Every structure is written in structure tokens, then in C-alpha cells.
């Protein structure tokens, strides 16, 4: 049955709000106002850095306001709030000229230099532009936050006063109570406007407004740059979810409904089987349009084990911590050890049973059990069958294999803490998601026909993320062709040699009586890592079929891509009442750099220090080369060969571009992450979990990375 191929959703991971002029050209505040004005929002008339001030004053009329618009001001990372002045009620050309001059002069104040140093903003690159704008004389004015910046909830916060809001914003006037008649009159309109502005920019907003004659004017809008969370929020993380590609950007409701259903049962069933279950809890939750899992609940279960250290658990998953020392530690006592014996025995049984389940599923996939889904008519019945039978089994087995791999690593590392784990898990048997790279590199000639054949064979691969809302390779052939045809013939070092060397050295240093244990536990760890990666590819195949079914059902029901804004339960019942709300949420957070962890005290703002950067060394070797910064796989595909890729994260969609890198640095990830596996298989050094690498390392800068020690050293040189 022919399938309607939809274009890629405009809400791609790197989607940015439309700017008439870039913030780097006219400053953040002016760029935001221009963007809002072009989108049809009510913005008072204004001119940015006018050449003819007299003509501007004559055209706009009076009274006027002059506002700063420095480069970097009102940006995603820093706001420069309170650093510059706005000048109100200007009625003459002389007053306006003086205000413009003061704005320009303010950029060199010592307080601004201190702010730049604190937030790692290059002070010498700061430029000031000014906004000359018609002033609104309002009956009500104030600010609205589209999310609560002190609790992290999506409850709007409105503070307003009668007349202009300059005294309110400077803290010299208290806001009106919530039951004030003016607020009751305009609250719904303010909230509606705020939601529209957040949806326009795709990130939570701090908006200044003024209301005159029942018309709500937007005076400025900027991203909320700091959000803290109340203790009632609990502790949540995207660890492993972002590496899998579902939390790396906003997640569609269809994808989240699939993921949540299996994550909940697979996690809780595993805890029960390991005798670690305490009580029921919400396993996962959406924040800012992204999935998070319940970190606090899992820690509570694991803390029953003697010798548990919170720091070791967090470090293993690359979770950012806000405590000192080891965090929560469970003492080792005779009583606790005795109570833990059932769990120790249960772990062994779980690893045996999960090994059998994973191998059986791989055998089933290899025997072609999923092949009929390529040609099967895509109907409502087959969609339900695909979800309830095939997907449920595959994803349940895959998730539990992930847990098994983590347990196998914990077992190995606790027994052999000094072993070079990164090298010892390199050189795994051939991995399925690297098969397209091997296939292209083995082609005698890379013709359009041969590349198209590879693309079709591995059609379930993707570039933007695992989410079923994004196209797969067979729908994205131009990009895939260009990426594959430019693959190097070979790259990196042979990882097998590093593995054999580390194996021989560790075995030599291990007492004879412990060597068989070393061999057995290492073999278990390596096998589960291989099983996990193989099942990841099988899982991707099932998501491919789910996407194709969703596309066809969307076509049959005249929904188009709106079907991705339904849950799978809604699709079963053909319920459509939540589509627009779900799409609004998706759009409203599409550009938000959501935190990886939520809950607990906010991490302290620590300015980047000069010198080495630290992370987790996951693939041994050293490399000195030019840094290439890439926020997504499209940018990474343009990286010249032999440079060091610096990126926020990678997921399986990056597989075909990593082979062109001389080394890899990411802001997230750990020893068992997908990026770590790939870098070891490609034989390229990698340092992961380097906090703020994308802002600390400059594009074109020469850096040295040590993938064994987890060190990144900027060399303060730039490529000519």
C-alpha cells in the first residue's frame, strides 16, 4: 500500500525562531522585538540605532523610550538583566540624544565587565545598539513569566502595577494583588499572549507588557535563563533517555506514550525481580516537553544495598550532582549484608534469564520474523497488533537488557576497580548500527545506485532522533546520500589491539586465584554491551514500522502529521481532542535547552576556569586537532576530516559521521553510552560528560584530548 511521505516536521532539534536580523547584528532585545513584530504581535513602533535621530523622533512622535540592545543581551544563556538602563518619558530631541549616548557609554562600565567575567562572556566583543521606541502610556503594565522560575512548574507568574512598570521592575513598588480588578480583567488576555510568545520562540519567556485602551503591547521578551525547582518536584533525570534520542529534544506525544508504557513496566518488573522493590512510584514524567525518569525513586530502592554510594551511581550515569562528598552512603553491616543475599542471588538469576531472552529475540530478528511488516497492509488492526505484540516484546527486552548491562558493569568494576574498563570493552563483535558504514566502505564505487541500495537496506536509521515524528533514511535520501558518499574509506585505530593489550596487562596484574573470575565477569559485561547495541538496532526497526503505520493512518484519517500529537491510545480510539494542546506544548519548548536533571538545589554558577577541562575518558588515546562545534548531526556532517568533534551529545543518528572525527568531546554521556561504544569501535579517543564544552571550547581552537584520563586541554591557538 502506498504511504504518503510527509516532509520533515519544521520542529527539528535545531529549529530556531525566525529573526529578521540576528542578535549578533542588532543585539538580543532588538532582534526579539523585530521577530515579534514580523509575526504580528503588537509591538510599539521602534527604530534600532537610527542614523538620523532627528527624523526618527519626528516619525515616531513623543513621548519616547530609549532601551539598550547589547549583543548577548536577552539571549538564551545570559540576560544582562539590570546591567543597562532604559530612559522613559523623553519628549525632546536633546533628551533622546542624551539617552542614546548614555546607553552607548554604559557598555564599558566596570559592573558590565564584572558581569561578563562571571558569565564567561567576552567583554571586548560586546557591542551596544539602542532602541528608540514610542512609549506606551498604560493603565496597567508589568511582567509575566511563562513558567514559574522559582519552582519550575508551568504555572504562569504575573506581576503588574497601575501605570508604567519601571518602579515595579526596579523593586521600588509592590505588585498589585491577584484579585485586583485590573488584573482580573486582563489576566486571560495576558496569559494568552504569553503562551503565543513562548510558542513563537519555542522557549519559556520573561515578557514585559503594557496595556492601553484594552490593547496589550509587548515591550520586550527574553528567554528565562535560570529556573530552579522546589523540593516537592522530586529528582528526575534524562540520563540514558537523551543518549537514546528521546530526550535530546522535545518528544512527540506518540513517542512518549510508547516509551512510557514500556519503561514503567520494565523498570518496576526488574526491581521486583532483584528484590529491591519498596513501593509503587511514577517511573517517568514529562517536563518541558521532554521525558525524564524518576531518579529519586530508583536511588531509594538501591540505597537498601550495603556499600551503596550515591556519588558512584551518579557518576556512572553522568548525572550532575549538587552535593559534596559521596552523597548518601549505606554502611556495610552484618545485618545489611545478610538482608542483601537474596538480591545478590536474584542478580545472577536475572542476568542468566535476560541473556536468554535477548539472544532469543536476536535469533528471531535474524530469522526474518519482522520482515513481513515491510509489505503488510497498514491498517488500524495491524497498527494495534504492532504496538501490543511486537513493540511491547522488543522494547521490554531491550530495556531490561540495558539494566542487565549496567549491572554487569557494576559487578565487574566493583571486583576490578583498577582495570581499564574503556579499553577492555572495546573491540566488540560487529555491531548492526555500524553496518551501513561498513557496507559503504566496502563498495568498489560509490555510485548513486549503490548508495541508494545501502540507504534502502538500512532504511530504519535516522539522523534527527529516535522519535517517530522524524523521517527515516528512506525519506531523507538527499542528506543520507551526501553523508554516506563522503565517508572516509577507513578511520581511527583498530580497537581490537587496544582490547588485547588491556586484557593482557590486567590479567598479568590480577592474582592467579582471581583470573577466572576476571575472565568470566569481563565476558559477561562485553556480551551484554553487545546484546544491548544489537537490540537497539532491532528496536529502531520496530519504530520504523510504527512511523510508517502512523503516516498511513494519518493519511487515511486526514490528520497528516497531527497523528504524531496523539498518544497510541488516542490513535486506537481515534480521539482528537488533545491534538492542538499537545502540538502547542511541543512547539513551546522546541528551542529550550532543558536541564538534564530536575529537582533538588540548583547547581551553583561556576565560571569556566582556564586550563584543562575534565570529563569521563571512555575511549583511550590522545589527539591534538582543531575543535569543530556541532549542535546536531547536520552540522557534524560538514566537519572536515581530522578535526575533533565537540557536541552536546550523540545518539545512533550520528553513527555515520563519527568516523570522520579525530576525536570526540561531548557534554553528556558515560562509559556505557552509545557515543562511548562507537568511539571505541572506531578507535578514536573520546572524553564525555565535559560540562559546558560547547561554550567553553571555541570553534577553530586547537585542543588536546586524552581519552584515557578524561582530559581536554585548550591550547589557546586558532586555526589560521
From TrEMBL:
Top-level taxonomy: Bacteria, Pseudomonadati, Planctomycetota, Planctomycetia, Pirellulales
Native source organism of the sequence: Roseimaritima ulvae
Span list, region Disordered: 1-25
Signal peptide residues on this chain, from the entry's feature table: none
Pfam families to which the protein is assigned, alphabetical: PEP-utilizers (PF00391), PPDK_N (PF01326)
Gene3D superfamilies noted in UniProt: ATP-grasp fold, A domain, ATP-grasp fold, B domain, Phosphohistidine domain
Domain Pyruvate phosphate dikinase AMP/ATP-binding residue range list: 60-186, 189-231
GO molecular function annotations of the record: ATP binding; kinase activity
Entry superkingdom: Bacteria
Annotated ranges, domain PEP-utilising enzyme mobile: 640-710
InterPro entries: ATP_grasp_subdomain_1 (IPR013815), PEP-util_enz_mobile_dom (IPR008279), PEP_Utilizing_Enz (IPR051549), Phosphohistidine_dom_sf (IPR036637), PPDK_AMP/ATP-bd (IPR002192)
Designated name of the protein: Chondramide synthase cmdD
Composition bias type Polar residues, residue spans: 1-14
